[in-house]
Amino acid sequence: MSDFTSDFWHIYVGGLALVSIIACAILLWVSGTTKAATHADNTTGHVWDVDLKEMNNPLPKWWVYLFIITVVFALIYGALYPMFGKFQGALGWSSQGQHATEVKKAEDAIAPVYAKFTGMTPEQMVADPEARAIGERLFMNYCAQCHGSDARGSKSFPNLTDGDWLGGTGHEYIKTTIANGRTGVMPPMAAAVGSAEDVRNLAHYVLSLSGSPNDSVRATLGKEKFAACAACHGPDGKGMHAMGAPNLTDGTWLHGWGEDAIVRAVNNGFTNHMPAQSALLNEAQINVLASYVWGLSTKPGTAQ
């Protein structure tokens, strides 16, 4: 890997660019000063289609000037902007700096729009048509790819409209999650449960907790194996909300329902990751978006 991080490639690319420009200038000079052997009628002796003769006329002046301008422009550009390897150019321009400038410009332009929502409560923002419209646009741009345009999610992507939350609730929790992201992990538990049959028995017991169709004999055998799960999901299977362990009795299944889905979860575990959005959204935007998401599952005026 050191070959790809050494200064050689900077020198190689920068040198190649400079040599190419110099080569163009030399080629232009040679073509303008070299005289080809011609006949008295200024022809080279090459003839096509019987009477189509090649003349030895110089390039048009405007064409020559265009070449000269191109070479001069390339040298000036390389002196001002990054073009010759590591050399940053006299102006110190960079794509990162340009991006930061554009982001700052955009934030300054939208700041007055979000200023009116700064002092509002979540309930007030949910009730405000403009705040809801802006929140919906933000949701469509940054959240709908995973949670769906209707926010009802899909397998492994939570439904944001049902009020079933892991790790916390309320407007502030949603703001924190949007800004910093969240990772949910269930470790593989097959070794702690026992044999493959024990895992299947446990799956039927878990199904029985939510009143889902199950094999009652297997469920009875699997009840004692649930002790391996109780540390996170609780002895009654109602989960531990603060640590993000889901309630297994409510019939809400994030990673799939049924015996096979539960067996797969116990055997393999899973890791769900929501990426942080703070690099894409500023604090005011996150505040409006969080209010919109909070309002999807909460009626304004009710307790969080």
UniProtKB/TrEMBL annotation:
Its main location: membrane. Keywords: Cell inner membrane, Cell membrane, Electron transport, Heme, Hydrogen ion transport, Ion transport, Iron, Membrane, Metal-binding, Oxidoreductase, Repeat, Respiratory chain, Transmembrane, Transmembrane helix, Transport. Residues 130-210, 217-297 form the Cytochrome c domain. InterPro entries: CcoP_N (IPR032858), CcoP_N_sf (IPR038414), Cyt_c-like_dom (IPR009056), Cyt_c-like_dom_sf (IPR036909), Cyt_c_oxidase_cbb3_su3 (IPR004678), Cytochrome_c_Oxidase_Subunit (IPR050597). Its cofactor is heme c. Binds 2 heme C groups per subunit. The chain crosses the membrane at residues 12-30, 62-84. Pathway: Energy metabolism; oxidative phosphorylation. It is found in: Cell inner membrane. PROSITE patterns: CYTC (PS51007). Signal peptide: none annotated. C-type cytochrome. Part of the cbb3-type cytochrome c oxidase complex. NCBIfam families: ccoP. Component of the cbb3-type cytochrome c oxidase. Belongs to the CcoP / FixP family. This is Cbb3-type cytochrome c oxidase subunit.
